[in-house]
Structures are given as C-alpha cells and as structure tokens.
Amino acid sequence: MGTFIVGIIVVGIVGLSIRSMVRDRQNGKSTQCGGDCSHCSGHCH
C-alpha cells in the first residue's frame, strides 16, 4: 500500500513538472537557456 501511495505522489510531481514545461514553451520561454540569452549567446530565439 505504501508503494502505491508513493508511486501516485511521484506521478503527480512528474505531471506538474511536464505541465510547467509545456506552459513555458507555449509562452515562448526556452527550456534550454531559461530565456536569458546572455548565457547562450543569443541563439535561443
């Protein structure tokens, strides 16, 4: 039973992480450089 509960918690955390990355991508933010082009020499746009 404990393994099942921990599994559900892990799946929930992964789902929230993926949802956050999808929203960032839809808003034009890059997942590679975080939108701060000083770190990637302006190649992220």
What this model shows, in words?
The protein is mainly alpha-helical and 45 residues long. 56% of the residues lie in helices and 0% in strands. The chain is built from one helix and no strands. It has one helix at residues 2-26. It is elongated and about 50 Å long.
By secondary-structure content and strand pairing, the structural class works out as: mainly alpha
Q: Over the alpha carbons, how many angstroms does the gyration radius reach?
A: 16 Å
Q: Work out the strand percent.
A: under 5%
Low-pLDDT sequence parts: none
Task: Please estimate the helix content.
Answer: 55-70%
Order of helices and strands: H
Mean pLDDT, all residues = 79
Tell me, briefly, the overall form.
Answer: elongated
Question: Care to give the gist of this entry?
Answer:
This protein is an all-alpha fold. The chain contains one helix and no strands.
